[in-house]
Specification:
heterodimer, A: about 150 residues, mainly alpha, 2 domains, 8 helices, about 0% strand, B: about 190 residues, 9 helices, about 75% helix
Amino acid sequence: MLLAMAAAGLLLSALKDRKKTKQALRIGARQFRHVLPFFVAIFAAIGLLQSWVTADQVQAVLGSDRGIFAPVLAAVIGGLATGPPAAVFPLGRQLLAQDASTGAVATLLMAWVAVGTVTLPAEIRYFGTRFAVTRWALTLVLSIALGMVMGWIL
Amino acid sequence: MSGAVRGIKENWIVGVVGVAYAVSALLSVPKTGRAATVGVATFVELLPTLVTVFIFVGLFQVWVSDEFVIKHLGEGSGAKGLALGAALGTVIHGPLIGVFPLLKSLLAKGARVGVVVAIVSTWAIKLPMIPLEVRLFGWRFAALREGLLLASAFMMATVMELALGDQWKPPDDVALTMPAGGRTIDV
């Protein structure tokens, strides 16, 4: 669907101005080529992480921990293990069924998507160390805080 | 800086990951094989998104004027700009890393830092995924999580802008010039 949108955008652009469209494609292609090795490396790292840190292990660690520090643990795990939201939802559900605390699960859901420790090198490259590290740390703290608040309310 | 040195500096992560794979292979060959498979699969899955993003980066560069971005997402855009950013974060999908290039070009066109932070902060909310979340966790959990995340996007944006200060600029590491003479940024 996204590709269709891009194609439509390109078509529209080509109808309006062919030269500009060519230029747009050239910019896109050059930047794509430029970051390709970088992206491949990041995805290789994600693969490595997913193969060594399994859902079973996350479950073993978080499954029965209902203490006040469970969200902290969840943030560390979630922050390390990055993946699509679709993958973490079922895992969170299972953790709840296993008696994990609501706060820890809420934290895991947020940290998983937003903290992004593996992709930190990419973020540094695009936005600089200061931006990336500040955002990384703030998001980590925030996911813990939000998890605790949710655990407390629910 | 010479090209070679720059290449090494930019792609140090490639070396680090290479070493990590070597260590992993020493510890367990099957696990390393699985890691490579997962990596390739994730990458292939993301490829259409990446291609799309870079097409959009190109189109965005050529068609969207600096003035337009500055007006709607720039310094003077206030809470409205942040709200726009937060909304964008909930509808664009795919791994965060995939949109970094697009966010970078937004910044280069004059969007304020907070807007980019807001987009990133609402990334854990996915509009199309809400039905699934409600089904798995119940509506109270989902509503509370979405609400808190939205509120936190504004907070994060403000704190980040304060932390980075007015003078902050993203690095323009790979400053290649436009072939056709126009101004460009490299992401």
